[in-house]
Design a protein that fits this description.
Layout (H helix, E strand, L loop, with lengths): L16 E6 L5 E4 L2 E9 L5 E8 L2 E6 L2 E16 L4 E5 L3 E4 L4 E18 L3
Antiparallel strand pairs: 1-3, 2-5, 3-4, 4-9, 5-9, 6-7, 6-8, 6-9
Length: 122
């Protein structure tokens, strides 16, 4: 049984992982694609993860095999699908990127978001 001590508070708990990275060169379209991720929680199956992500201005290709719920805390981003349709998101927006989405993730202004990811095929 889980207790109140098992509740993970972002910013108060120590992140399980803290990584700074760039999108792989073969996926980069523009900009430095600098990113950082602090994963605060992963479940015992390895399918569910939650944490904080931030990224600098740039654009890169994405192919989602997982479902991701996000809340944009700062900045602006644009997601464009392979047909060229796009949605622009700003601080305060809550959104889900479904598994199977392919396209471009573009950071228009330095951005920060919370994320909750469910990996479908694990």
């Amino acid at each position: 049984m889980k207790t109140a001590q098992d509740i993970v508070l972002f910013g108060r708990s120590v992140a399980q992982t803290s990584d700074t990275f760039c999108a792989p060169a073969e996926r980069r379209i523009s900009g430095g694609c600098q990113q950082s991720m602090n994963n605060f929680y992963s479940d015992e199956t390895g399918q569910f993860h939650a944490g904080l992500w931030s990224g600098g201005v740039g654009a890169w290709r994405v192919k989602y095999t997982e479902h991701e719920f996000c809340t944009l805390l700062e900045g602006r981003v644009r997601l464009t699908d392979t047909a060229g349709r796009s949605v622009e998101l700003a601080a305060g927006d809550h959104f889900v990127i479904p598994a199977g989405f392919e396209g471009i993730w573009e950071v228009l202004e330095p951005a920060r978001k919370t994320y909750a990811v469910f990996e479908v095929d694990r």
